[in-house]
Structure formats: structure tokens, C-alpha cells
Amino acid sequence: QVTDTLAKEGPSSPSYDWFQTDSLVTIVIYTKQKDINLDSVIVDHRDDSFRAETVIKDYSYLVHVALSHEIQEDFSVLVVENVGKIEIVLKKKENTSWKCLGHPQENHNSFIPKKDTGLFYRKCQLVSKEDVTHDTKLFCLMLPPSTHLEVPVGQHVYLRLPITGTEIVKPYTPVCDSLFSEFKEPVLPNNIYIYFLIKIYPAGFFTPELDQLQIGDYVSVSNPEGNFIISQLQELEDLFLLAAGTGFTPMVKVLNYALTNIPSLRKVKLMFFNKTEDDIIWRSQLEKLAFKDKRFEVEFVLSAPTSEWSGKQGYISPVLLSEFLKRRSDTSKVLICLCGPTPFTEQGMKMLHDLNFSKDEIHSFTA
Ligand code: FAD
Ligand code: NAD
Predict the structure, then answer these.
(1) pLDDT at residue 156 greater than cutoff 70
(2) Which of 108, 153, 186, 297 is the most exposed place for a label (fewest CB within 10 A)?
(3) Which ligand is in closest contact with the Cα of 340?
């Protein structure tokens, strides 16, 4: 037994248990890990099917049962971080004693590499759609009340719509509703809204269909994916963000998280590449943030400016980068995040290596 456990690759398997009172059923997941939080577990209850997926490093642990009795729509999720315990508290519809939790469904009690699990989707309702630039909009989707899902900083989800009879999926990166949203959060009911900044391409396949949705219509949203790890920000002194066009979207939560949660942070600098001034997403918010928080600086670089533009011009280049990426000292902890069109990201990565930044100091956002 001991040899088996040691020989097995990856973290050791979680387990689960359940108990009840007259009115509640509590499912407890023992993850055996310390770095567990509310975004580690995704819960969906639909008809009588109950599904709780816990993500532990690159693995996924699934509790998936057809519940033996009916429950109410809402439930709560609690995490005891220091012991890695997750509690999901369900409310019984009737105060009867349950003999069993339910019947196992597909992959119940399995612990498998995340890459081998399919993406799970739930239908979310379009709540609002606001113009941000001439072609980019802020979409707000509402999760069903029977879902607990928090998208981790730096991760994306897939949106799915039926288009001419086929289900089409594309990745999008959730953002905050604004760069100043930390002040609003306490009044929101626990994270039921997901916001996206999405550019509509008139000749595109997916985005024109998304843009056709009316308030109240549904779009399916997947579980999160992505390889950004929040610990990359721990003890950071200088954070540099290189974003092009909608490549700005992963930077939004990274920026907010770093400014609010990293005490060692000295400077966050965003270099934002766009074609024209009209294409700059949240320009006035970025300028306001730079004014309010002296740790934050923003520089706009345009590749197709009008003759009136007096700021920086052109594509990403070694000259622009070497001027911009000034570390405080040889030993200061630095992270450079990059996101944009593929040629932008690829050229940027090469330039950063040539400027002697190490692999650990660079994170590029890709699918
Ligand atoms: P597509 O059909 O893919 O077309 C896009 C553009 O390319 C159009 O102008 C089209 O005319 C042109 N085009 C298509 N095919 C060709 C061709 N063969 N030759 C020349 N031109 C062509 N986007 C966002 O707006 N917000 C986000 O938060 C966001 N997050 C992302 C996260 C990840 C991880 C990744 C990988 C991408 C993300 N994207 C995001 C981009 C998004 O996934 C889509 O690629 C984008 O919305 C375009 O989809 P579409 O189907 O409408 O356009
Ligand atoms: P865009 O066409 O408006 O271009 C924005 C800027 O990107 C340009 O001003 C230029 O500086 C730079 N750029 C464009 N083409 C370049 C090239 N060939 N070489 C060097 N630099 C170039 O950009 P957009 O339409 O907003 O597209 C944004 C891209 O970001 C999309 O391809 C999208 O898929 C990608 N994206 C990826 C993620 C992710 O991987 N996590 C997230 C969001 C967006």
C-alpha cells in the first residue's frame, strides 16, 4: 500500500464524506492540500445531478452523484484553507432523513489529470452589454443560482453557442467590471456575474453571433483553464504588462490582484499596443488609475496613429522594451506578462530572451 502511494505520480487522491442534520446535507471534500481556496472547487447542481470538481495542481477530483432526495436551488461553499477541507452545504427540500447521498454518476470519485477531463459547460444568461470602444463590448453573464464558479486570476473559459446547427466554442478571459471594482465587491451577491471584454469582428465566425444575443438569452460557459499561477506574483517587486489589443483582458485581473494583494509590489507598468487611439480599451480608467495609484504607470503605443498622436508609435521592438523594462536592481523580483496577436507574443518572447530575462520572469498568455 505504502509503496503504491509513493510510486504514484502527482498529488495523493482526495476523498469525500457526507453528513446531515434535519434540514441540511453537508458534503465534505478532504483535498489533503494546503493551497486550496474558493476558486479550487466548481459546483453544479442540475435536476437531480450534483457535480463538484476540485482542481488540485494539474489534477481534477470529481464528486458526481444523482442525489437521493430533492434539494433547494441555492447552496453554500466553504473552504478551511489550512487543512484543505471543502464543505458544500445543501438545503433539503423536505426535512426527512437521507439513507444515502445518491447514486454514482460518470467518473464519480475519480482523480485524473485535468487534461484528460472534458470541459463541463453550464448555461449563463446575458444580463448586460455595454459599448467600450467602437468594436469592443463589455458583456455581463449571470451564472445559474445552482452553480459555484470563480475563474482564477489569469485563466480563461470557453464560450459555446450553436451556430448553423453546430456547437462552436471560443476562449475568452473574464475581467472585473471595471479597474476600480474592488470597492464594489462587498455589495455583490457572491460572484454570480462574469464579465468579458470582447471585440466584435464583422467578418468573424463567433463574435457576430455573440453580438446578436439579446438580454436574457443564454450562452454556455465552460470550467476555467490556463497555466498562470497566482504564486508567480508572490514577493514580486516589479510587474511589467505587455498587452496588444484584446490581449489586455488577462492583464485586468492580474493588475487588480497585484495592486491589492502583493505588499512587496513597487511598480506595475503596462505598455498597451493598439492600432489607433479609438481602439484603446478603458483608456480613461487606466489614466485615472495611474493618477490615483503612483505604483501604476501606463504607456500607449500605436501602430496606425493619426498625425496628431505625439506618443510612442510602431510595433513591439527591442528599443521600446529596453527603455520600458527597467528593473530596480539586479536581484529584484520581476515578472513580465505578454498577451496579444500570435506574432506580437512570439516576437515579444524572443526580444525578452535577447534582453536576458529568464524563463521564470516571463509569462505569455496563450490558449
Ligand atoms: P474569427 O472567425 O476567428 O476571425 C477573426 C478575424 O480574423 C476576423 O477579422 C476575420 O475576418 C479574420 N480572419 C479569419 N480567418 C481568416 C483568414 N483565413 N485569413 C485572414 N483573416 C481571417 N478575444 C476577446 O475579444 N476577448 C477576450 O477576452 C479573449 N480572450 C482570449 C483568450 C484566449 C486564451 C485566446 C486564445 C483568445 C482569446 N480571445 C479573446 C480571442 C477569441 O478567442 C477569438 O479568437 C476572437 O473573438 C475572434 O473570434 P471570431 O470567431 O469572431 O473571429
Ligand atoms: P489588433 O489587430 O487590434 O492589434 C493590436 C496591436 O497588436 C497592434 O497595434 C500591434 O501593435 C500588435 N500587432 C498586431 N499584429 C502584429 C504583428 N504581425 N506583429 C507585431 N505586432 C502586431 O489586435 P486584436 O484584434 O485586438 O487581437 C488581439 C489578439 O489577442 C487576438 O489574436 C486574440 O486571440 C489574442 N488574445 C489572446 C488571449 C490569450 O491568449 N489569453 C487573450 C486575449 C486576446
Answers:
(1) yes
(2) 186
(3) 2
| CA 130 – ligand 2 centroid, Å | 22
Instruction: Kindly provide the ipTM of the predicted complex, given to two decimals.
Output: 0.97
- The grid coordinates of residue 280 equal 484603446
Q: Which ligand is nearest to the CA of 347?
A: 2
DSSP string, 225-249: B----GGGGTT-SEEEEEEEGGGGH
Is the alpha carbon torsion for 246, 249, 252, 255 positive or negative? Answer: negative
- Gap between the Cα atoms of 229 and 55, Å rounded: 13
Ligand 2 center to residue 330 CA distance, Å? 31
| Four-residue CA torsion sign, 339, 342, 348, 350 | positive
Place of cell 502511494: 5
Nearest to 248 by CA among 274, 275, 217: 274
Question: Measuring from atom 34 of ligand 1, which residue has the nearest CA?
Answer: 367
- What does pLDDT average to over the chain? 93
Which ligand lies nearest to the CA atom of residue 246 in the structure? Answer: 2
Question: Ligand 1: residues whose CB is within 6 Å?
Answer: 156, 170-173, 196-199, 201, 203-207, 246, 249, 367
| Structural domains of the chain in order of their starting residue, each with its CATH number | 2-116 (2.60.40.790), 121-222 (2.40.30.10), 230-364 (3.40.50.80)
Cα 40 to averaged position of ligand 1 atoms, centre (Å): 29
- State the pLDDT at residue 338: 98
H helices, E strands: number in the chain: 6, 23
Angle at 9 between CA 7 and CA 13, to 5 degrees: 100
- SS3 (DSSP) at 127: strand
